Predict the 3D structure of the following.
Amino acid sequence: MKSAVAHFVDGRLFSPKFNDYYAARDPVAETAHVHIHPANLVARMSRANTFTIFEFGFGAGINLLATSTEFLKLAKPNVRLRFISCEAFPLQHDTLRQVHDNTAIDKSLSRRLLDFYPPLVSGIYRQLFANDRVELTLIFADIETALTEFVDQDSVGVDSWMLDGFAPARNPQMWDAKLIPILAQCTKANGTVTSFSSAGTVRRSLEDNGFSVQKIEGTPFKRHTLLATLNESRLQSTEPPRKVTIVGGGFAGTATAHAFARRGIQVQLMTPSGGVGDATSSIPTAVLHPRLSASMEEPAYFRTQTYFYAAALLSQYLQHATTGAVQISSKNMVAKRLKDIADTLGKNWARWLDAADCLELTNTEQGYESTFFPKSIVVNGIELCRSFVDHPRIEVVAKELFAPIDDELTIYATASTSVLGKTAEAWEVLTIEGQIDTFAHSNNNAIPRRVLIQDGYIVPTESACVVGSTYEYTQWKPGLATKTNLAKLQQVTSREHWTHLGKFRGLRTVTSDKLPIVGQIDRNQWVNLAHGSAGTASTPFCAEILASQVFGELAPAWQECLSIINPDRFSERQIRRPNPFLRHKR
């Protein structure tokens, strides 16, 4: 996306494109006077179970931070704030930081926002604050695209709209009269619209679409501001579920349990042992990193989006984990592509390293042209699963299913699809083996300083390296996986004479397109499974997608991304060609 061109004029952020300031000299007070007080937001947020705000024009995020601060002061602990905002010209990260440094805002909320502020790539980004009580969904797109996506996905509706773009005369696209009927369509009973602009065209359009409009006079920031209240809601919302059963105690099952529990739902998590993080999800060392591809197609885009969400979420649960990973250029990911990715994502998410920089950062025998991802995380599987289910609304029970549950809302998030019977017959899935190995070296200088990614990963510990992981589509001979991982280690580090300390083997379920299977398969049955490829990133992201869909909420993904993980996609493909995994199944 094109970032906003903005600079400071006499201490205030100014946009030359729109010939307007972003905010008053005291932007927090302006938020209170224009939006919070006229719409009686604090009292209304306190009475709700879930309160939804949709903002036009994210800017520097001051409305989010000011509103969240008031919400957290007075709202009950079980209330959730959904704050949705769109921005067609996002500010650069450094500009955002400068605004926050000079504004009287909650610095802990600000740091969280800045740490995981999205890259300047179009998308729907979700970030959680304050023990999941505040949910920011930031849409980097023009307002028409954002509203279209919201209407098509969300049936929960909006309690309060904040129209906070630049002035209508300078930014007509955001104030287009054809958008107002969409607002009316999506507004809950007694929902409000607040705005610093009381222009006649805006007032008339709101009135024509069922809002009672009044001008608020005498604010210190504007001569008049605007409050509109919907007279009669046309929104047909559905009652959210009160409880859910989730089958599976691995990454997918526990992440899904977390996504439902934070929405106030009682979760029963079924696992064969009554514990979590068993089987493959007990992997002691995995890496959350962007599964990069030279492709610009939707699957590659989807995989990067999983990373942005998971990196923000997992940082809360794995606070003491090793962070940062270096992706080394290779035949499948050439240096130019890696540099383009670093330039696109920006230094908050990625930093280009030439050979000398890489040598200094990693302490390898040779330097590689590479990209450093500071937010990648080393994951301990058992620790992650236990962290996800450490919630008062999640009960883990020991039970093994042999047939689907028909009469209650159930999410299947297991490695095996056999319990689903004929429903899963068309899915192009295969269970394959994989392995990681641990190697030590007599010379501690042989161990890299950073996690290295190439065709697999190398994770340094104090005295060893964990290397993985293999994709064994066919039956490998004993010892071949260890030899493969050792060769990978020797090639990247340019060191010989490693001593093998141990291995971890597990089964993973993969699909023919290496994308998970997520969505509804029957009236009460949903699935979140087949995460055998980059599951540390895809499982929490897809858990959030699935919970959003069950609740009728906007998911953190474009609809075209949702379609490529839909369970029905395989049947549609098999009209044109046979299941490519039939020859592998044994």
